[in-house]
Amino acid sequence: MIANRGYDAYARNKIMTASPAELTLMLYEGAIKFCNIAIVAIEEKNVEKAHNNITKVENIISEFLSTLDHKYEVARDFENVYNYIMDRLVEANLKKDKEILEEVLSHLRTMRDTWKEVMGQNKAAKAE
Asked: Does 7 have pLDDT greater than 60?
């Protein structure tokens, strides 16, 4: 129990001190984690666990949608991708379809990796 409190304090501190870019990366990582858990839950026929974790991914995608800055043209592209992912998540949750979740997982990993690359480029540009 005490170890959990220490970890919780560490996790809270990590979130509170993270930059917006780092928070976005954490959200992508969380979505990937919950998607993986949902896939395993479907394999194990644990419907409730699958539902709960798909819902967590949906919540993260909803957060991404709500924070898009539409003054930039690229926001429309992100909105389309996030809406597509959300539609696939709803379908996966209704059908408890592992293949759909694997597709979503692939998209999330690509977006996470792209985000990491952009973060690295921005860091390098600031160092110059």
From this structure: no
pLDDT, tens digit, 9 for 90 and up, residues 18-63: 899 999 999 999 999 999 999 999 999 999 999 999 999 999 999 9
Domain segments of the chain as ranges: 21-127
Global pTM reads 0.87
Q: Does residue 51 sit in helix, strand or coil?
A: helix
In the 8-state DSSP scheme, what is residue 97? -
Q: CB-based contacts of 109: which residues, under 8 Å, 6+ apart?
A: 32
Is-contact 109 32, C-beta < 8 A?
Answer: yes
Q: Cα(7)–Cα(77) distance, rounded to whole angstroms?
A: 37
State yes or no: pLDDT of 1 exceeds 90: no
Say which CATH superfamily domain 21-127 falls into.
Answer: Flagellar protein FliS (1.20.120.340)
Q: Could you write out the DSSP letters of every residue in 76-96?
A: HHHHHHHHHHHHHHHHHHHHT
126 phi/psi in degrees, rounded to 5: -70, -30
